[in-house]
Specification:
Chain lengths: 302, 369, 268
């Protein structure tokens, strides 16, 4: 769906995006993770043809960008760096205006599409007050409504849950999953690990302009081949287990085996009290932290 | 297309937009090798040639302000834009164009009609024997007629050709050899095809900037259709038919003086019907003398005396404005005096004033015949 | 895109408030003239203003002459300066471009929308001045050209239409300059101010004899030449030059806006 090769963006001496090779496949919910200032937004802008790459290539649905922008962009719904709307117009009028901007919008179905989109983002009951009176969350929802107005094949969303309360975040997540089910590929750029972990099927991690990691979430958080055990009887457990064991703390340890069942049987037979036991998995946070350095917004002394 | 290509296109458009008019203006002019004398002859032969066009004149002369002479200030001290249709010396029309209206002068036979748009005012006058300068005198051909009427071929040299109003024009420089003249030189360019002057610049002695320049910006030789000269009274306009055209006309007809036949060795112009007023000399050494009544002379004298550059000559206060010298004398028993104005040096002005004391006094005439 | 821009402009309350404000000055002048019956001294007031005391039907032209030197160009500079910079500031520019709208098309649509704004403003000024002129001001039609010749009412109508068209055309240069600046600076106000600075500079240079050789290239040089349409015969010279000049300004500055905007990173 999205493929980039050696995509690079340089602002004078600063390299904002450094030779990244994105690979977003059709049907993915792709989490594009990175600290603030790591180059996420610049990448998104390049994908949408708003900024021009210094070097490298972008292909979306196999067509080169920004050369084929007129055929590619109508398939994309986007939310870049916060929503924006004409403050003096109502939400509905804003959507109607944006829909009318490009001739590909079918005029007859505009009303129904707008109502449908508003319903999906939870703004169905909004009245005709101007957007400038909207709360941040409402604006975010309106922005999303604009992005999904034409049931795009690809959604490119930059921090879509910004300004939403936990309930709203949940609703948006459900919306994205729902749209993905119906065949929309989602490219979700975020600095929130939890959000990506809960929503995405595939993850790319950007660190200071470089793509340091790109893989399926399932692969990244697959069992490590070790078994985690929590027990108050650490010494006893170490004694009875045949596989090499690392004590993590005074109530937990790691066993070098990918068979939690066998470990359990051994421990229970030996009368060791097991509080918790299972295959060890890395959290996304572990993976990301291992792959990245500290964010560019920290200015610690070297 | 890269950014550089786009900016190149913009640069090209800009160059084209600026360059096209400049190129048209800079089209090479004729490389004629005609002699100055031939050009002078060509100029003189064009006197009765019809033409029309758009003229811009720029004068730098700051004349003293006085009620009766008010109209002269703008003529010689400002930029004037004019349209002209000239069929012959007795059938022409000159419009002074302003941002808010216009002022037209239409000569038809012996009568002249002046139309002022903003005052919706019409003034009909007959053509006087002598008058003060007016709008039509600013046209290059008219200026040339006054200034170069009696130029000696020895005073004339050639200037390089130029393109004026899109036409090829031959240059001519007149440098008066008469020591009494206050004119440094006159540069004139004549239309190569018709001989009609297209541009004229008058330089005062010791100045490198022209005191007065008049040039055609659009020019077409040939007569104009008669409708152009057709003037009917618009509804609601005021019509005036003054007995006298201006202070010079009035003085000429009613002042009880007869100026002598020569002053400062300058012969009196033989033009007909000159009585109280006289013109001495010719071409670039020319003086106009007008006897002024008390009520006109007194304020003008005060004006002159208030001017910073005023010079006290033996016969009265004098002013030199560019090439133009002005001297106002005083009669023995009144505030009236001779106004002497011309393109002559201060000494000559003074000498003219001295010689004018020999003017004959005639009994006042009551009729204007 | 052009339709959307027009809809946005026409629906905006600010458009109409601006037009009403532009219209306020000639209306005030008209009322004052009617009340006091004092015309401007010859050569001092705006063109045609001295004539409206006797012929109120000329007031539309006087009204346009009143707003043309300052009010109208200021409004045009503000509206055109807003075009790109305003969208960028509101953040809507990136969404408009991602719709997608071609950047060149967006520029043209913005310019068209500004031109329609000028047409509206000039029409409103002329129509309200016509109404005001026929009811309050002089009712002795002079039916005369500036040159004193008589014009038929058909001729007057035709020349008035030409003059209004020329007034609209005169604003193209400012619009293009402001639009160009709008693609460069981030604040719409700065773009408007920049365009106004150009106009003020141009008007100043026009009064300077030393800048005489520049004057045919200055954007305000031929603004007031629409009076030439009421001379008889019509003096086309300056009107033609003014038209060419404005078109040249559009070509150069719309071109510059295009060159800059189409290769610019949208980073608002």
């Amino acid at each position: 769906m999205i493929r980039t090769e050696n995509l690079t963006k340089r602002y004078r001496a600063v390299v904002a995006v450094d030779q990244i090779d994105l690979d977003v496949r059709e049907g993915d919910i792709y989490g594009f993770l990175g600290a603030n200032g790591s180059g996420k937004t610049t990448t998104v802008r390049m994908l949408l043809g708003l900024a021009f790459a210094t070097s490298g290539d972008i292909a979306i649905t196999g067509q080169p960008m920004p050369k084929s922008r007129s055929t590619v962009l109508p398939m994309i719904g986007s939310l870049v760096e916060g929503p924006a709307a004409y403050g003096r117009l109502s939400g509905r009028n804003n959507l109607a205006l944006f829909d009318a901007i490009n001739a590909t919008g079918v005029r007859r179905s505009r009303r129904t599409r707008i109502e449908e989109a508003l319903d999906r983002v939870g703004l169905g009951g909004v009245d005709s007050r101007p957007v400038k009176t909207y709360s941040l969350g409402m604006r975010q929802r309106l922005g999303l409504a604009g992005a999904i107005l034409r049931t795009p094949r690809l959604l490119i969303l930059d921090e879509p849950t910004n300004g939403l309360d936990p309930q709203g975040i949940r609703e948006i997540r459900d919306l994205l999953l729902d749209m993905n089910q119906q065949g929309t590929t989602v490219f979700l750029s975020s600095h929130l690990l939890a959000e990506v972990e809960q929503t995405c099927s595939r993850v790319g991690v950007l660190d200071r302009g470089r793509l340091v990691l790109q893989d399926d979430l399932a692969t990244l958080t697959a069992p490590t081949g070790r078994t985690f055990v929590r027990t108050p009887d650490v010494a006893e457990a170490q004694r009875v287990l045949s596989s090499p064991v690392t004590a993590l703390s005074d109530d937990s340890l790691l066993v070098e085996t990918d068979d939690p069942g066998a470990v359990n049987t051994t421990l229970v037979r030996a009368g060791v009290r097991v509080l918790e036991l299972g295959p060890e998995r890395h959290t996304l946070e572990d993976v990301v932290l291992a792959a990245t350095q500290s964010g560019t917004d920290s200015m610690a002394r070297p | 297309m890269t950014s550089l290509h786009r900016w190149l296109i913009v640069a090209l458009t800009t160059a084209l937009a600026i360059g096209t008019p400049l190129t048209l203006r800079a089209l090479p002019a004729s490389d004629s090798t005609s002699t100055p004398a031939e050009r002078l002859d060509q100029l003189r032969a064009s006197v009765n040639e019809p033409y029309s066009g758009y003229v811009e004149s720029l004068g730098t002369l700051q004349l003293p302000v006085a009620d009766e002479l008010n109209e002269l200030g703008p003529l010689f001290g400002e930029r004037t834009r004019m349209r002209v249709w000239w069929n012959d010396p007795t059938l022409w029309r000159v419009d002074r164009l302003t941002a808010t209206g216009e002022e037209d002068l239409i000569r038809d036979g012996n009568a002249t009609t002046q139309w002022e748009y903003e005052g919706t005012k019409i003034t009909h006058t007959r053509e006087p024997a002598v008058r003060l300068p007016r709008l039509s005198d600013l046209l290059p051909p008219e200026l040339a007629r006054y200034l170069l009427s009696d130029v000696d071929a020895a005073d004339v040299s050639a200037l390089s050709s130029d393109r004026i109003a899109g036409r090829s024009a031959l240059g001519l420089r007149v440098t008066p050899s008469d020591a009494r003249s206050s004119v440094e030189r006159v540069d004139v360019w004549i239309d190569e095809a018709s001989g009609i002057p297209l541009r004229l610049s008058l330089f005062a002695a010791g100045s490198s900037n022209p005191a007065l320049t008049s040039t055609f910006l659009d020019f077409a030789p040939g007569a104009s259709s008669p409708e152009v000269f057709d003037f009917r009274h618009p509804r609601g306009s005021t019509v005036e038919r003054p007995q006298v055209v201006d202070v010079a006309d009035a003085a000429n007809r009613f002042a009880p003086f007869r100026p002598p036949p020569t002053v400062a060795d300058l012969p009196r112009s033989p033009a007909r019907d000159l009585r109280g007023v006289a013109v001495y000399g010719d071409g670039l050494t020319q003086v106009l003398v007008i006897p002024l009544w008390d009520d006109i002379a007194a304020p003008l004298r005060n004006q002159l005396l208030d001017t910073q550059t005023v010079v006290q000559l033996t016969q009265g206060p004098a002013l030199s404005v560019g090439p133009l010298g002005i001297l106002l004398t005083r009669f023995l028993r009144s505030d009236g005096g001779w106004l002497i104005a011309g393109t002559v040096t201060a000494e000559t002005l003074d000498q003219v004033a001295i010689d004018l004391r020999g003017a004959r006094i005639t009994p006042p005439q009551l009729s204007n015949s | 895109m052009i339709g959307v821009e027009l809809r946005k402009m026409l629906r905006s309350r600010r458009t109409w408030v601006t037009i009403l404000l532009i219209n306020a000055l000639p209306t005030l002048v008209g009322v004052l003239l009617a009340v006091t019956d004092l015309g401007p001294r010859p050569g001092s007031g705006p063109a045609f203003l001295s004539a409206v005391l006797s012929d109120g039907t000329l007031f539309p032209l006087a009204a346009v002459a009143i707003v043309l030197p300052l009010f109208l160009p200021t409004a045009v500079a503000v509206v055109a300066g807003e075009a790109i910079a305003g969208e960028a500031q509101a953040g809507t520019l990136r969404y408009v471009l991602a719709r997608p709208v071609g950047r060149t098309r967006l520029l043209v649509a913005k310019l068209v929308s500004v031109v329609v704004f000028v047409i509206l403003a000039v029409l409103v000024v002329a129509l309200s001045a016509y109404v005001l002129g026929s009811f309050l001001l002089g009712d002795q039609p002079v039916s005369a050209s500036v040159s004193g010749t008589t014009l038929t009412s058909g001729q007057i109508a035709w020349r008035t239409a030409l003059a209004l068209g020329y007034a609209v055309l005169s604003m193209l240069g400012v619009a293009a300059i402001a639009l160009f600046l709008s693609t460069i600076v981030e604040s719409p106000l700065a773009a408007a101010m920049g365009a106004l600075a150009v106009l003020i500079g141009s008007s100043l240079l026009l009064t300077l004899d030393a800048a005489n050789s520049l004057s045919p290239f200055l954007p305000t040089r031929y603004w007031l030449s629409f009076i030439d349409l009421f001379r008889d015969p019509i003096l086309w010279r300056n009107v033609v030059r003014g038209t060419g000049l404005q078109l040249a300004y559009v070509a150069v500055f719309l071109g510059a806006a295009w060159a800059h905007f189409t290769t610019k990173d949208i980073t608002d």
